Amino acid sequence: MPLTPPAAALPSGAWPDLPFEAWRDTAATLHLMTQIVGKVRLRHTPALNHAWTGTLYLAARGLTTGPMFDRGRVFEIRFDFIDHLLIVEASDGARWSAPLRAQPIADFFAAFIAGLESLGLPSKISGTPNELPEPIRFSEDRVHAAYDADYAHRFWTALLAIDRVLQNFRAAFIGKSSPVHFFWGSFDLAATRFSGRRAPPHPGGVPHLPLAVVRDAYSHEVSSAGFWPGGGGIDYPAFYSYAYPAPEGFSSAPVQPDGAFFSEALQEFILPYDSVRTAPSPEAALMRFLQSTYLAAAERGKWDRTSLERGYDPVDQPLV
């Protein structure tokens, strides 16, 4: 007999309303939860270039670390945003889970580390959040304690819809490109294309992120796009696209769809999520933004497009 989805469940591919102010506190708490789990992945995964080691990935019920390794064992950590659980499972059948609920980050952190230790998976991680202006150590954080299950589920549902478009956009590029992955440091879903050329050393300036990490992430020219739920300079969910280094004329390039603009404060193109969500075809609207902002970087940056692209415009391709 098929399982009945919970009443709050939204259909796959939905573009739910996601007003940032309504779940700001939950977003801040969930951001810290993903940082804690992401730091475990960072410890148990071979180092990759461009800060890809610690990212999370979309899964059928939430977010996952994917497989990690510990002394001959394989294990995985998953956020389940349907039943609202944090789950750790190992290749030898060992399993631990705990409810995702409103509780101080200090309590979440203590329970999670104890859970790993109970499975024989001790993980010493940095106890301080990254990329936040005034971080509180996880073990001492009793400020962030919100968890609204409905909005956590809405956020994940939106990520599923966005991930599908980003995956199809990525498929049009045969040069080096990142996976579509979730950065727990900045709490965004992103995909990056590379020209293949070295970039000038990045000046840094990301709060509580070592300069060496930033320079590794931006060691080569990029066109990067993704989605934020809000925060970091904007108080609404939005898509973004930027180039590093930004070529001359990048900020004045024409981009689509209506509603997209270049933010002088953030130095990147912004498209409000609601402009996509309410469009006749959200997928088509987002794909136009991704493609037009990429072209702004590639054409003005004189990328070798013939060698880097598959020869079709992803805007005209049906989503898989």
Question: If you had to describe this structure to a student in words, what would you say it looks like?
Answer:
With 320 residues, the chain is of the alpha+beta class. The chain has two domains: 20-140; 149-309, no CATH class. The protein has helices spanning 20-43, 105-118, 149-170, 211-217, 273-277, 282-300, 305-308, and strands at 57-58, 62-64, 68-70, 73-80, 85-90, 95-99, 181-183, 188-198, 220-228, 238-244, 261-263, 268-272. Strands 1, 2, 3, 4, 5 and 6 form a six-stranded antiparallel sheet that branches. Strand 11 (261-263) and strand 12 (268-272) form a beta hairpin. Helix 3 packs across helix 6.
* Rounded mean pLDDT score: 94
Strand runs, count: 12
DSSP strand content: 15-25%
What is the overall shape? Answer: globular
* Backbone structural class: alpha+beta
Helix coverage percent of residues?
Answer: 25-40%
Please provide the ordered H/E string of secondary-structure elements. Answer: HEEEEEEHHEEHEEEEHHH
Largest sheet: 6 strands, antiparallel
Number of helices: 7
Number of domains: 2
Uncertain spans = 1-7
Radius of gyration: 20 Å
Our measurement of the CA-to-CA distance between the termini, rounded to an integer number of angstroms, reads 28 Å
